[in-house]
Amino acid sequence: xxxxxxxxxxxxxxxxxxxxxxxxxxxxxxxxxxxxxxxxxxxxxxxxxxxxxxxxxxxxxxxxxxxxxxxxxxxxxxxxxxxxxxxxxxxxxxxxxxxxxxxxxxxxxxxxxxxxxxxxxxxxxxxxxxxxxxxxxxxxxxxxxxxxxxxxxxxxxxxxxxxxxxxxxxxxxxxxxxxxxxxxxxxxxxxxxxxxxxxxxxxxxxxxxxxxxxxxxxxxxxxxxxxxxxxxxxxxxxxxxxxxxxxxxxxxxxxxxxxxxxxxxxxxxxxxxxxxxxxxxxxxxxxxxxxxxxxxxxxxxxxxxxxxxxxxxxxxxxxxxxxxxxxxxxxxxxxxxxxxxxxxxxxxxxxxxxxxxxxxxxxxxxxxxxxxxxxxxxxxxxxxxxxxxxxxxx
Length: 394
Hints:
alpha+beta, Butyryl-CoA Dehydrogenase, subunit A, domain 2, single chain, about 15% strand, 4-stranded antiparallel beta sheet, 3 domains, Butyryl-CoA Dehydrogenase, subunit A, domain 3, about 50% helix
């Protein structure tokens, strides 16, 4: 007779998995602190030393099966890594795009594709980014115009993508493109395919965007002009890329949530420390309920979002369809982080806008979390339609 594990055992197991990753990550953030990332941003260079150190420690291989050259673990582990890095003040967008890009390749790629495009990302020697958003399509990805046509044994890619994080530093880019026009298919989800594009291929042009979000990864518009792709660049079956794409996007939402949680706690910690020592009227401003309640509420909301995030991650690892939970997690975490940042700014007053306090430097990235990788309004649409069963609103 088998006995199911108690809820306490499950909770402790989950907590142990998270704790193990966070303890390992703490060594990285102590070795490469916030000042290191700020220096990389100032010099406009990728944090290569930190990235390779994460590879050496096996952190970049989290969520990749050992059979594929990874460190094992699941979504819980890579989410814990993302949160721990942000909590240490060293968030990296490349972890988000790498995490989502590897999912469809691991699940649907050939052994050769996994060995070439996934395994080397585990030690940091190869970087992988992701391209879906287009200037005219925006959130409506099904309306994309980037097109790959079959020509003999090759594919020829034309079009453009925008807001592509880390395109300059990536070795390969996972690109979703139409292989059939929208007018030629019965359903808009059909006729889309996933390709891995070698960034050294002729016909690729990068245009740096003037996006004022202070991260080591810059944002680019990417142009594809008759870029020739070998047959093995196609992941899975042609025309079936939409389903593969969403498998990766669910993990992306949780990685975004993890970064929001870590950054939210990071700025909240700075606010609490400042509120303990700032005494313009002879007592710490942290004793004023107007500030104390705001900080306390921010903490409570971060903790609630954290529970939702790890619940969704654990569901994915258990083989469940946790798309709804992933959407809710990203929604709640981004809102909680923005509230924490707003409370931190109000606590610091005018000093919040002094770059030396390193608070306003983080505001654009935290605020971005409510827009990217998908805006919160679309998440609410999803919850309304697919969870509550309401009519489609757009």
